[in-house]
Structures are given as C-alpha cells and as structure tokens.
Amino acid sequence: MAIITCRTVSIEQHRTLCPDFPLFTLAALEPDQRATVIKVFPAEHGERYDAHRLMHHLARTPQLLPLAANPLLLNILCYVVDDVDDVFPTTRRELYTRALVKLLTHASQRVDVRYPGEEPTVTEKPVILERMALNLFAAGDRRLTVTEEELGHQLKRALRDARYGEAPAPWANALRVDLVTNSGILRGTPAQGFFFLHLTMQEFLVAAALVKIVNAKEWDVRWQLHRRDGKPLVPLSGPSLGAAFALGLAKLSASQP
After folding, report:
1. What is the dihedral of CA 88, 93, 98, 103, to 10 degrees?
2. Three-class SS of residue 128?
3. Do 229 and 150 belong to one domain?
4. What are the backbone angles phi and psi of residue 8, rounded to the nearest 5°?
5. 147 in the same domain as 190
6. What tens digit of pLDDT does each residue of 69-87 get?
7. Per-residue b or e along 147-181, where b marks 16 or more CB atoms closer than 10 Å to that residue's CB
8. With contact defined as beta carbons under 8 Å apart, do 35 and 65 qualify?
9. Tens digits of per-residue pLDDT, 198-248?
10. In this structure, how many other beta carbons lie within 10 angstroms of the beta carbon of residue 94?
11. Which residues span the domain enclosing 228?
12. Angle, nearest 10°, between helix axes 169-177 and 148-161?
C-alpha cells in the first residue's frame, strides 16, 4: 500500500501513523505539459481566449510559474484569462482575487439561493470568506476537510463579525449552498465533508484576513518563521510562500496585545 499526494501538508499526520509507507508526490507539470493544458482548455469565450498569448505571458511572468506547474491552479489561471477584459494577472494576489470575483459572479448554471434578506454583494462575500478561512485556520487542525457542523459554525461566526445579526443560521445555510453549488469555491457534501477549491485558495483568504487585522490595529509587524522540526527554512515561492505568510502572521497576531 502507498500514499500518493500532491499536497505535503496532508502527509504530516501520516508520517507518525504510517512511518513505513512508501511516499510519492506528483511531479510538477513540465513546460510542454503546461502548454498542452493551456491549448486544450475548454474556453467559454473561444474568440477571446488566446492560448499562445497566455504561454508568452507566463514566460515573462516567472512569479506565476510555480502556480502554473499545478494542473488545477493552471486551469484556474486559464479560467481567469478566459474573460472579456483582456487583462492578464501578474501576481498571485491578482490571480486569486480575480478568480474569486469571477467564481462569485459567473452566471452559467446558477441555482436560485434564497437568502433571508438582501444577498451579500460580490465585495461582501470575499470578506466573509476571509474571516471564515481564518477561523478554520486558527483552529490549529490542518485537515483538508471540515464537517458540515464545523463549516456552519465558522460561517455563522464570520457572518456575526460582518454584522448579519446574532442568529445568522439562515444566512449561513444560504451562503453555504451558494458557495458550494454556484461558485464552487467550497466543494464537498455533508457526508464527505467540505473543503476549499484548492488549499492555496484558503491560504490566500487567511493571509488577506490577517493583513486587514494588522492594518486595522496598526501593529508594527516584524516576523520570522521557524520550522516546527527545527530544520532551516528553504527558499519559498508560489503556494509555499503563501502558506508561510499566513502561518507567520497567525503566530504574530496571537502574540500581539
């Protein structure tokens, strides 16, 4: 028996439970594989989607290459540039921000979600998502999935923080359906558990929430990361840098007055 994963975060608990298991991780996409994914992407706006321009953009934007090496994140990049504004993201922040907005507003095959009041706007929903992601992250359990009960609890906490009242259960239920069924930012079922579209999406939301907290409190932030196993840090980039950023600020924010 073997464990095969493309996310090393899920390995940490298994190293203790199954120390003798052989371990394999999926390799990153090679340049020719990346080009194939870009060319065969099922673009909705075929007349505007320019695969060759996107490949040229990636060649000139090395900060996006670690993300483009992941098949799912590369498809998200293709999804973002398959649009009418004809502007390509140049940073991870731009990519994830535009992906969130497009997922939240894309009109194809949306179901009617009945909110108890006026539906949160496209600018309000990311703020609620950020707070929910931070709450889940702050729980300290780095599981990839959460139960329906845990998700509902953290959604209600985030909605209270966003001033949706002291009894926001109807809002949380409607928002969960919206995020799972319409946008796909959250995936899963009550039986399987729920998870973010990609772990780096959660990391991005956590980092965004922490930055807002730091700025609002006007903290003088100086931080340094240390590995839990005491080993030296290797150079970080792409999704790993996002995770480190979130981890570092989480540690700092807990120690601030």
Report:
1. 130
2. helix
3. yes
4. -70, -15
5. yes
6. 989 889 999 999 997 666 7
7. eeebbbbbbbbbbbbbebeeebeebbbbbbbbbbe
8. no
9. 888 888 898 888 778 777 776 665 545 455 555 554 444 444 444 445 444
10. 14
11. 109-257
12. 120
